[in-house]
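Section 5: illustrative case.
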């Protein structure tokens, strides 16, 4: 069975969005001296080589972390963005200059001596990569198990913590599975912070998931979304089959890996219809029990990121409430 490999997408605009907000959530936990637990339900490999075959094939990181590295105005970056970039640089300073840290590495970098990381990854070979990336850190433990069973690991002994749900979206019912997991988890750990990342492919299904989580948990819900403004649909064009016999047809820039390989379908004799997939252009983070101050800090960060990650004139972000924000715990 072929499994999702995040190495193709690491460091893209969605990773920047997700990890800047993750830094904000962890910073909220660090405001108090009490220890916390970070539970990552779909942890992945932990760190990714942007010079490797997967990242080189898609080149998505160039429109994400690459944009920020090339920008010349980092001095004015909001606190969450500045801390995110500091952590990326620190991870690369450990002998991996072309690597991009995954969510476990951001949590590990911000964890204090008494904090703990519980990381779930169901693919054994990926879990082995994750373990290697942790370099024997005693604060971290890896569970080779399905992340949708992670509610069984709750509540944490620390009684404070963040549950990150970041699945590969290989299932057609992934949003329903996320809502199910949040519901089961809140029953066991009502005071925990929950953050679920999702791509925006079907607006109706996303809205239904957000409403369901808000209704069934009865907890404060904050939904943050980011759209880089790139075109949303497949692009269809027609070309002579004679051209395709001579050489593959590509859009300008396709060799940079920003779009998937063209898919061809016969339109009529001598003519081929080429359908080129446009990559994900919008994603969101659904947060339950957001820490005090997170919304304001996130708004500043996303406002700053919007023009720098934009790939079209319609780039935008939204922050919407399900229920009012909670006081600081």
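Designed sequence:
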């Amino acid at each position: 069975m072929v499994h999702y490999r995040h190495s193709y997408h690491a460091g893209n605009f969605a990773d920047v969005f997700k990890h800047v907000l993750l830094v904000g959530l962890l910073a909220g936990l660090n405001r108090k001296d009490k220890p916390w637990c970070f539970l990552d339900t779909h942890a992945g490999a932990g760190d990714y080589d942007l010079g490797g075959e997967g990242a080189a094939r898609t080149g998505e990181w160039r429109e994400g972390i690459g944009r920020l590295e090339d920008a010349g105005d980092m001095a004015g970056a909001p606190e969450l963005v500045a801390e995110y970039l500091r952590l990326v640089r620190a991870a690369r300073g450990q002998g991996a200059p072309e690597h991009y840290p995954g969510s476990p590495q951001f949590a590990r970098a911000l964890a204090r001596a008494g904090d703990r990381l519980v990381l779930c990854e169901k693919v054994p070979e990926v879990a082995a990569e994750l373990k290697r990336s942790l370099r024997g850190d005693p604060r971290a433990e890896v569970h080779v198990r399905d992340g949708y069973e992670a509610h069984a690991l709750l509540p944490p002994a620390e009684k404070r913590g963040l549950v990150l749900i970041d699945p590969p979206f290989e299932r057609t019912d992934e949003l329903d599975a996320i809502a199910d997991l949040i519901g089961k988890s809140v029953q066991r750990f009502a005071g925990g912070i929950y953050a679920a990342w999702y791509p925006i492919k079907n607006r109706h299904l996303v809205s239904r998931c957000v409403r369901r989580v808000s209704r069934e948990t009865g907890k404060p819900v904050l939904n943050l979304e980011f759209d880089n403004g790139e075109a949303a649909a497949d692009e269809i064009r027609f070309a002579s089959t004679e051209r395709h016999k001579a050489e593959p047809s590509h859009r300008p820039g396709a060799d940079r890996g920003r779009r998937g390989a063209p898919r061809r379908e016969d339109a009529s004799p001598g003519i081929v219809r080429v359908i080129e997939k446009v990559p994900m252009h919008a994603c969101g983070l659904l947060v339950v029990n957001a820490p005090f101050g997170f919304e304001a800090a996130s708004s500043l960060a996303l406002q700053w990121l919007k023009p720098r990650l934009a790939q079209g004139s319609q780039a935008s972000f939204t922050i919407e409430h399900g229920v009012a924000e909670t006081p600081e715990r």
